[in-house]
Amino acid sequence: YTARQEGVTSRLYSLNGGHWTLSPSTIRTALERALEQGQLHLAYQPLVGRGGALRGFEALLRWAHPQYGTIGPDQFIPVAEMSGLIRHIGSWVLQEATRTALGWPDGTVVSVNISGRQFEHPEFIRELKAALAHSALPPQRLELELTESALMLNSARAERTLRQVKAMGVRVALDDYGVGYSNLGRLKLLDIDTIKIDRSFTRDLTASLPGQVNPDAAIVRSVVGLARDLGIEVVAEGVETQGHLNLLAQLGCETMQGYLFSRPLPAAEAQRWLIHWGRWSWLSGLPWGQETP
Ligand code: C2E
Ligand code: MG
Ligand code: MG
Ligand code: MG
């Protein structure tokens, strides 16, 4: 009985809000089989640009395990990174996302998250080229999302890899901006296309303190101003309410992503979204940059 119970507790850390919290070793073992058994798939969340135009989708990994249920990327990506499995998974994500994006209208961008370990691996550029070659997706329609910490891992190599990516014509976004080092001077050197302002700034944007400027609004305004001067596009993450949207538009942010527009969707639903979005954006009367017909 004890042995069995021990077996169970070493597999499952705790029952947390009705979901099993799995131990890293359980995740690792299960993850080794996840790809070949077809348990991984990508969800696509829209990014909405000026005038309500659909700019593209961010591809987000989803894992549906037959026993453990859905396991979030925040839980399994760190394990995949530590175990080295991220290379295999990350290369599949690139192939799958570029192949899906080829079925979208011309100009629609797919954003793919790249982990630091994946980015610094000597084979990364070769895998990126292979994904573009297999899918025949024009490189300008692919954007890689990197965090500042990913670019700091081995900065000499990271900068060289970044130059190679840019030379291929692939776009680069700095993800979760504002929570890391946020070295403003480095932005110019890195030649990135997009800054994604972290969700934590959007979250408290509309909270008002009597007689005080909202600090997050002040930060967003300054990032938007700097980005505009450097010719960098700004995306706000975590846009959940009309209030967020109105304020972000007022602060000069042009591209938005969040539950207000849509949750991450299965590929087939993203495809439907591409067809119906024009009508929906008109009906909902999006307030910013509304281009007169
Ligand atoms: P991220 O790249 O910053 O992705 C945005 C996360 O915010 C996603 O969580 C998305 O579902 C969530 N989100 C979007 N809009 C809203 C909103 O309005 N409100 C709230 N509360 N959340 C929103 P998700 O899918 O759980 O992914 C978490 C993280 O896992 C990602 O953060 C990314 O760092 C990582 N990740 C996901 N897919 C991949 C992948 O294919 N490769 C790698 N290396 N990392 C991935
Ligand atoms: Mg991202
Ligand atoms: Mg992000
Ligand atoms: Mg994030």
TrEMBL record:
Residue ranges constituting the EAL domain according to the UniProt record: 24-278
Coiled-coil region: none
Superkingdom field: Bacteria
Protein name per Swiss-Prot or TrEMBL: EAL domain-containing protein
Source organism (scientific name): Deinococcus sonorensis
Residues of the full protein shown: 675 to 967 of 975
